[in-house]
């Protein structure tokens, strides 16, 4: 197998470097219209307070990818995907909280 | 490389209809989704399910896979024969964030199809963005670090034949990166078509569990064991932190579970996170007569009822 070593610079998608609508669409393998639908359905939010252009962060990219997967694999609508993602986020938060309190869910099954 | 039986992974027969495959995937996805599953290897099982479903839900990929599978004996190492996919047109799904985590088997068959399909197309198009996960130590997120990650996929060699290609990216992890953030590597996604620029590679940052600290956003939490007299009378103690050993004052009358905030001593950023010391009162064990006597004297000298429910 051929191998190559590549050194590369990186950008952290965060408070300083956000994604615009076209970049988020490309990162999701989607059209710009799809991102607009994700915003309209509340899957992802835009931060319009600082700029006239919509800005998207890492959490938006993660939610957009998950929503598209739910839509594709489970045939759910985007509003339902938004709800599933919110509930999933809560589950993760509570699991982390329980873990921090010393509960091991594996032991309780 | 072993041949992967995608039908077996989904628990269906090769003759199973598209609808039944979808139902089987959805049922197993509910069982193994890491957010709800109690299985220890749920994440690996879910990845296998996604990989199998990615192939079997796509008519073209499934047909090519079925054709390939007819010549497989099931034992020994597997290599796809030259031209195994001729006559098939695959759709490469760039929205599939898990694809970079899929098996070598998947990469060797379907990992580079978009590039191969369009190699002789006349139009120009930017390459698709790709996704992968990078797991880093908490220390790397605080101080910054350089890490190598290996990615594999099919590319055309000098003779125009597809060959498995592995590349190692030396990635600089910037100080202050948070769990769940994406790091973008410009031009490290799928190659462009017709001379157009390559796509980007997005790495999702995950932290390895730390034996001492837990992380919430940029804030760090550390359980700090203290004696009852340090908590009651106040004390000045040394605490090892990522910024070195710090002298911390325990306030007089502190209780178990109290949090002391060390501003800006968490993960760096704008603003930097804080370090919370959670007081963890530890009682000396009364396993000697002297210790028991000391407790008896304390009980006598310091009447105290912690269960005052009146």
Describe the structure.
The complex is a heterodimer of chains A (109) and B (310). Chain A has 109 residues and is mainly alpha-helical. In chain A, 51% of the residues lie in helices and 9% in strands. In chain A, helix 1 (21-27) packs across helix 2 and helix 3 packs across helix 4 (78-100). Chain B has 310 residues and is α+β, with helices and mostly antiparallel strands. Helices cover 27% and strands 25% of the residues of chain B. Chain B has nine helices and eleven strands. In chain B, the strands form four sheets. Chain B has a four-stranded mixed β-sheet. The N and C termini of chain B lie far apart (71 Å). Residues 113-119 of chain B have low confidence and may be disordered. At the A-B interface, strand 1, strand 2, helix 3 and helix 4 of A face helix 2, strand 3, strand 4 and strand 5 of B. Strand 1 of chain A pairs parallel with strand 3 of chain B, so a sheet runs across the interface.
What gap, in angstroms, lies between the N and C termini of chain B? 71 Å
**Coarse shape of chain A:** globular
Oligomer: heterodimer
Structural class of chain A: mainly alpha
| Count of runs of 4 or more consecutive helical residues of chain A | 4
Gross morphology of chain B is: elongated
**Distance N to C terminus of chain A:** 44 Å
| Model regions low in confidence, pLDDT < 50 over at least 5 residues of chain B | 113-119
